[in-house]
Write a structure and sequence with these properties.
CATH class: Mainly Beta
CATH superfamily: Jelly Rolls
Helix content: under 10%
Number of helices: 0
Mean pLDDT: 95
Number of domains: 1
Low-confidence stretches: none
Number of strands: 24
Order of helices and strands: EEEEEEEEEEEEEEEEEEEEEEEE
Strand order of the largest sheet: 1-20-17-22-15-14-13
CATH topology: Jelly Rolls
């Protein structure tokens, strides 16, 4: 089943504007194995001061600006446009994510649930610069792989996470057999089957889909994430996923 959903504009941290797909109380809380998807913009003086997490892996990917991550493991690093910060909260971590630029910092934060058998592993952190992420381009389609076989990013989950740009009238075919995931539009209009996906909307798909055939109606920019569901109960409250 294919479903188009719109992100909800809301505020998080200290004044940060996010367009959130989930979790939204009273609507969609997750899409196993994914438990949060935020498209954010952080201005000067805004950010996410020190706070705790538990039970999932988080990936922050930037379109612009820069972000400093510090945590109670002793990590202190900055990423810029095209880079990613990855943490495994495991049994518990405390961190902050604050802009390190005078310009607006924009990007996506994705949380991926940990399977019950690894919920209490030791927390960890990884930082990857833009030039370390594999990139391909052909027939009007540019793909940056943030998480996947060719990426240096290592997760506990089996997942694919890509940033894609397509020129008008180009197409992109993706094998998503037995996976669940989403396509989120940053800009432009994309079509899949009889569904049109516009800016700040997402196409949600489940494990019954085998091939997604995407066609760009305009020049477009989007994120695609898909992975194997754990098919376990998910308990979410604030920064914790049990």
């Amino acid at each position: 089943m294919l479903e188009v959903v719109s992100a909800k504009r809301m505020f998080e941290g200290e004044g940060v504007t996010v367009h959130r797909l989930f979790p939204i109380i009273g609507a969609r809380m997750n899409h196993d194995p994914f438990v949060l998807f935020d498209h954010f913009e952080v201005g000067v003086g805004q950010g996410f001061p020190t706070h705790p997490h538990r039970g999932f892996e988080g990936v922050t990917y930037l379109f612009s600006g820069s972000m400093r991550h510090t945590d109670n493991l002793g990590n202190d690093s900055v990423i810029t446009k095209g880079g990613a910060q990855i943490f495994c909260a495991g049994r518990g971590i405390e961190h902050s994510e604050m802009p390190d630029s005078r310009d607006a910092t924009r990007g996506i934060q994705l949380w991926i649930n940990l399977a019950k058998k690894v919920k209490t592993i030791e927390p960890s952190y990884q930082s990857v610069d833009a030039e370390e992420l594999p990139e391909s381009a052909a027939n009007g389609v540019k793909v940056i792989t943030i998480v996947g076989d060719s990426s240096p990013v290592k997760l506990q989950n089996k997942a694919i996470y890509q940033c894609v740009e397509m020129s008008q009238d180009s197409s992109y075919e993706i094998n998503v057999s037995d996976k669940r995931g989403l396509v989120y539009m940053i800009s432009g209009t994309l079509r899949c089957s009889d569904k049109a996906i516009n800016e700040s909307q997402a196409l949600i798909f489940n494990s019954k889909e085998s091939i997604l055939f995407l066609r760009a109606e305009t020049n477009c920019h989007f994120m695609i994430a898909y992975g194997e569901p754990h098919s376990e109960p998910i308990i979410q409250y604030g920064p914790f996923v049990d």
